[in-house]
């Protein structure tokens, strides 16, 4: 395959042109031939001596390398031209197979010889080296402790602890030459990134397999000193690899012990759950301190709502334990409108990939929705234990599309506009649990819905959904106080960004995608109003 006219000037005009990206270069050594610039006759003799095996002579700034060239391997490569242009930026790593049939007038070993125009001793290297003296200085990582990270960082939300740790240039060379490679991630350039290095290049094969190979090589070379991230660069939507010292990624210690803060929030949440289920105390919250006996009336409702919240958190814990994800202590957020806004749970370690994040984020709402729906159905089916239950107006079911649809389906003609209904209080308690799960399923920030949208569609799409969701919640807060407090909570505590995953390129499996979309739809159905009037078929026909 011939080079283009613009690229061919970098090579000697006396030999056939081949792309080093398309061909497989093996290490060889010429022990009896010192490569220097000769006249055209000497170059012709050298070509004739090596005609039995195709060879490529690279000439760059009076420097020469001879390497053996094999046939092109069949592998998908859509970025060969780009790799040719960046070939001089790094060393080319290839497989170490040998050729026992190599013969010519001189005895050929297995090491390349690099020579220049001076009489200095040629330098021997283990693999093919192609350098550009004009660009070499720009490729070195500048060790600057005060280096600032550019905007559009591919690692938003990554909290690095302690003093910055500079990665030595020798380590960077090992990363480029021996950890990354043609079979995983072809490095075309690098730049400093906080305490680590960001490598740009071309990803080979499937991201998950390449990440596994690179991680294994990184551990073999440096044990547990460094952490690899395989991400999408938000500037150009192309894969990048980031290597960061692990010592800078330790969990941040909190000023107040986590269990103490979580316990304090939990006690207040228990109080608001009891208060929410005692209507007599709703108008005057301070009167609850003088009427503790009345709070006992709210115990059944508080237990049902707390049960749904507990099942929600249990779903997170079980999936996290199965996926090797460490969670912090859950902080239950009190609310005097609905009892609680749910819990904020920190992810302590780094999540491996988007599929694991999706399973973790969806497990809680799925468990909570499942139990809440069962209890809601039982509330509609079972009669009140005291024969009266709670009396509500039928219009209350317009506040939720899901609750209104189920009420219309199960109550039928008994559900009429302006008609009071006697219901089992289990309906109201279960509905509150469903609402708490629903607001946590809104695709915004670091709540469950935000993590689900991140796992489904990636970082850029989830950040846009977060902005749209916060805007809509802001508009809803003009008419609903629950929306007001929830948008304030998200904006100041849960806005994100979500901490980087180890590998963010691979999409989740389709079955987990379906679960994630189901959670988002259920949350939407609970929060959206029921728009249709509650009338009988006869009344509907009469209105027509």
TrEMBL record:
Keywords: Chloroplast, Hydrolase, Membrane, Metalloprotease, Plastid, Protease, Transit peptide, Transmembrane, Transmembrane helix
Pfam family, one: Peptidase_M50
Domain of life of the source: Eukaryota
Chain intervals for the UniProt region annotation (Disordered): 69-117, 131-163
Compartments reported by the entry: Plastid, Chloroplast membrane
Domain Peptidase M50 stretches: 302-470
Annotated membrane topology: Multi-pass membrane protein
GO biological-process terms attached to the record: proteolysis
UniProt-listed InterPro entries: EGY1-like, Peptidase_M50
Gene Ontology CC: one annotated term: chloroplast membrane
Species whose genome carries this gene: Thalictrum thalictroides
GO molecular function: metallopeptidase activity
Stated name of the protein: Ddt domain-containing protein ptm
TM regions (residue ranges): 259-278, 299-319, 331-348, 360-382, 465-492, 512-532
Family: Belongs to the peptidase M50B family.
Biased composition (Polar residues): 98-117, 131-141
Composition bias type Basic and acidic residues, residue spans: 79-89
């Amino acid at each position: 395959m011939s080079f283009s006219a613009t690229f061919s000037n970098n090579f000697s005009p006396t030999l056939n042109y081949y792309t080093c990206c398309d061909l497989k270069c093996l290490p060889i050594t010429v022990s009896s031939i010192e490569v220097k610039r000769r006249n055209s006759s000497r170059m012709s003799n050298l070509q004739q001596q090596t005609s039995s095996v195709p060879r490529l002579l690279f000439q760059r700034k009076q420097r020469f390398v001879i390497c053996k060239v094999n046939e092109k391997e069949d592998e998908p490569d859509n970025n060969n031209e780009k790799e040719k242009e960046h070939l001089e930026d790094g060393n080319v790593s290839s497989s170490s197979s040998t050729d026992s049939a190599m013969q010519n007038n001189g005895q050929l070993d297995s090491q390349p010889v690099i020579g220049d125009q001076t009489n200095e001793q040629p330098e021997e290297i283990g693999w093919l080296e192609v350098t550009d003296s004009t660009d070499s200085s720009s490729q070195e990582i500048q060790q600057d402790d005060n280096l600032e990270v550019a905007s559009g960082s591919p690692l938003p939300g990554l909290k690095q602890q302690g003093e910055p740790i500079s990665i030595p240039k020798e380590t960077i060379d090992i990363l480029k030459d021996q950890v990354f490679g043609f079979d995983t991630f072809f490095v075309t350039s690098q730049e400093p990134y906080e305490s680590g290095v960001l490598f740009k290049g071309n990803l080979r094969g499937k991201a998950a397999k390449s990440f596994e190979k690179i991680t294994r090589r990184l551990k073999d070379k440096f044990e547990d000193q460094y952490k690899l991230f395989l991400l999408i660069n938000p500037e150009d939507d192309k894969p990048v690899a980031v290597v960061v010292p692990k010592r800078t990624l330790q969990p941040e210690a909190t000023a107040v012990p986590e269990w103490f803060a979580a316990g304090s929030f939990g006690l207040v949440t228990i109080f608001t759950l009891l208060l929410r289920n005692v209507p007599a105390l709703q108008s005057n919250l301070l009167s609850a301190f003088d009427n503790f006996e009345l709070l006992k009336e709210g115990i059944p409702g508080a237990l049902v709502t707390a049960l749904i919240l507990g099942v929600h958190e249990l779903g997170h814990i079980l999936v996290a334990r199965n996926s090797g994800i460490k969670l912090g202590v859950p902080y239950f957020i009190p609310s005097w409108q609905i009892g609680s806004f749910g819990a904020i749970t920190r992810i302590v370690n780094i999540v491996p990939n988007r599929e694991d994040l999706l399973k973790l984020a969806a497990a809680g709402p799925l468990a909570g929705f499942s139990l809440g729906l069962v209890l809601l159905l039982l509330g509609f089916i079972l009669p009140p234990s005291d024969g009266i239950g709670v009396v509500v107006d039928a219009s209350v079911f317009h506040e939720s599309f899901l609750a209104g649809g189920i009420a219309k389906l199960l109550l039928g003609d008994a559900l009429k506009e302006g008609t009071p209904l006697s219901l089992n209080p289990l309906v109201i308690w279960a509905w509150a649990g469903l609402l708490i799960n629903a607001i946590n399923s809104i695709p915004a920030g670091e709540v469950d819905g935000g993590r689900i949208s991140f796992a489904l569609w990636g970082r850029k799409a989830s950040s846009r959904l977060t902005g749209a969701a916060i805007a809509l919640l802001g508009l809803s807060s003009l008419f609903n106080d629950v929306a007001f407090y929830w948008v304030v909570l998200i904006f100041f505590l849960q806005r994100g960004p979500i901490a980087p995953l180890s590998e963010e390129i691979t999409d989740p499996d389709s079955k987990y995608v379906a679960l994630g979309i189901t959670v988002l739809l259920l949350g939407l159905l609970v929060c959206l109003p029921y728009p249709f009037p509650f009338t009988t078929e006869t009344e509907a026909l009469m209105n027509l």
